[in-house]
Design brief:
This protein has 21 helices and 15 strands. With 563 residues, it is of the alpha/beta class.
């Protein structure tokens, strides 16, 4: 990547010996220049007006990488040398190819995401955690971090006491050999309704969970059975999404590690008793609600298991960052857990590295999703519906395509993933299937179609075009140069993703790259009769196609070669 901010700041700093890098901004209107430096902040130190400073610097700075400099009302506007940029960007790409945009970091980053609950369906509410987390994992890894993906399964808690009680009551009514998760959900909805009517049933459910924690053979056997059935169901979704995990551990993995958490907190005099429960008061950290560590009936709670997981991960992975991609509904819970983690005698770097990457919720038009009430949309149904829609569209446009099912899967799944990643993760969204599956505009199918168009052009050319055959002056026209600037921003965009843990920076970038390519395609004949033009244009669009592919792959979207 050519860092013109660095080039310009060094030229300015050579004259005034003041660090100005962060003050240099990119100009949106290319007719006014490429980068601007405001001289106002220098006025007091240099005892001159901003206009005088800008005029003086404008006359002093000379460099072949800068085409011209203009002094405008106290600003220095820099116009970069276009041929220089084109040559540097394409040479940088040619030297790196498969490693383009990559960096080399030594730090370990943990990304916990997806984390569905055992014995519940993988519904669309889990989509955001899965695709946001997977995209972040991919980008961190691409940038050279030692990145580890973790699926922290919800396989423990009072809900299992409820499910066990429901199975005791009605298990003989259900055949778990056929659509087992659907059957378990029916049992779960029924038992929740009964718990609301009869508190004695809820008490039995809590007792079941306590028995599970104590190793009761019947309860443990049912829990294992429900877990195995769920994991098989989850794998079908992960296969469709192309998601794999480096570490898969449920909350139950940390049960034997919780006593150490309790012991450390007790030793540090942080545990107090409140209404029979053991809690940690956090008011000194600005959190009014205490964090429960052990419930009044002696059973564990998710916070204790999360704290045990932090201890385990710090010792096992020596992480620099530990990201939790979990919905904003858990904001308070993570504030509590991270606050209590300060009392676990951990090295400060592990506590400082904890970060909740929260996101807004998908909601149905009538309200939020709720498994216990039975109003949810299964993600498998959404993905299959989107794939079928994609297949219908492809068959209309290209019925002779050999691998229609494979392409439809890439397009259909990509449409669902991209629709989730196109907006800021913080934003709440009403789930609308029709909007998700649109195949025009700012969508994944649009990017895939532009990629396929480029590949089609490249197939029409007999030989691979090499950089030595590129004439840089043939790429100065409007959209060609805009493509060069966008290519140069690829690494910056990836770093923006990890600086804010926001995949939508990459999604928006890919749309911009695809639309700019479309403009270029309409402006020129890429397979020009002029050999120098043809070679130069083909090389440029080859680079564009590879960045579109790499970028989409980082988001978790596969690219078809034909459509």
């Amino acid at each position: 990547m050519v860092d013109f901010k660095k080039i310009i700041s060094s030229l300015i700093e050579k004259e005034i010996n003041i660090d100005v890098y962060n003050s240099i901004k990119e100009i949106e209107d290319p007719s006014k220049g490429d980068y601007a430096f405001p001289c106002f902040s220098l006025s007091k130190e240099m005892h001159k007006s901003p206009i005088e400073i800008a005029d003086s610097l404008c006359s002093l700075i000379k460099d072949e990488r800068i085409e011209k400099i203009e002094s405008v009302s106290g600003y220095l506007n820099f116009f970069i040398n276009k041929e220089y940029l084109i040559k540097e960007v394409l040479t940088d790409y040619d030297n790196n190819r498969d490693n383009y945009g990559k960096e080399d970091h030594k730090e370990t980053v943990l990304v916990e995401y997806s984390s569905p609950n055992i014995a519940k369906p993988f519904h669309v509410g889990h989509l955001r955690s899965t695709v946001i987390g997977h995209a972040l994992y991919n980008v961190y890894k691409h940038l050279g971090y030692n990145t580890i993906s973790i699926n922290h399964l919800g396989d423990y808690g009072t809900q299992f006491g409820k499910l066990i009680e429901g199975y005791k009551l009605w298990g003989n009514e259900y055949d778990l050999n056929d659509k087992p998760i659907d059957k378990l959900v029916e049992i779960y909805v029924r038992i929740n309704a009964l718990c609301e009517e009869d508190e004695t049933v809820l008490a039995r459910c809590r007792e079941n969970f306590k028995l599970l924690e104590e190793g009761d053979e019947y309860c443990v056997g049912l829990w294992k059975k429900f877990s195995e059935l769920s994991l098989k169901d989850f794998d079908k979704i992960y296969d469709l999404l192309g998601v794999k995990f480096d570490v898969i551990k449920g909350e139950s993995f940390y049960i034997d590690k919780m006593p150490e958490v309790i012991s450390i907190l007790d030793k540090n005099n942080k545990l107090t008793v409140s209404e029979g429960a053991k809690v940690v008061d956090l008011e000194d950290q600005g959190i009014k609600t205490p964090c429960i560590i052990v419930k009044s009936d002696g059973s564990s709670i998710y916070a204790t298991r999360d704290l045990a997981a932090i201890l385990y991960r710090a010792r096992t992975f020596d992480y620099t960052k530990s990201l939790y991609v979990v919905a904003c509904e858990q904001d308070l819970a993570f504030k509590q857990v991270f606050a209590v983690a300060k009392y676990l005698d951990l090295d400060e770097k592990y506590v400082n590295g904890l970060e909740h990457v929260s996101f807004g919720m998908y909601r149905l038009p009538e309200g939020k999703f709720s498994t216990r009430k039975g109003n949810f949309v299964k993600l498998e149904d959404i993905l299959n519906a989107s794939i079928n829609k994609a297949k219908e569209t492809i068959m209309e446009k290209n019925p002779e395509l050999d691998n229609i099912d494979e392409v439809a899967t890439k397009v259909g799944v990509g449409a669902v993933v991209f629709s989730d990643l196109y907006n800021s993760r913080i934003k709440d969204e009403v789930f609308d299937l029709d909007e998700m599956m649109k195949f025009n505009g700012e969508t994944s199918p649009y990017i895939q179609y532009m990629y396929v168009r480029i590949k089609s052009i490249l197939r029409k050319n007999d030989t691979e075009v090499l950089l030595k055959n590129v004439k840089y002056d043939k790429l100065l026209e409007g959209s060609a140069y805009e493509l060069i600037k966008l290519i140069n921003k690829f690494n910056d965009v990836l770093n923006s993703v990890i600086s804010k843990n926001e995949p939508y920076f990459l999604s928006r970038y890919l749309i911009k790259l695809a639309t700019t390519y479309s403009e270029y395609y309409n402006e020129v004949k890429i397979l020009s009769d002029d050999e120098e033009e043809r070679n130069s244009r083909l090389y440029l669009v080859t680079v564009v196609s590879e960045i579109l592919k790499t970028g989409c792959n980082l988001l978790g979207i596969e690219m078809p070669e034909r459509m």
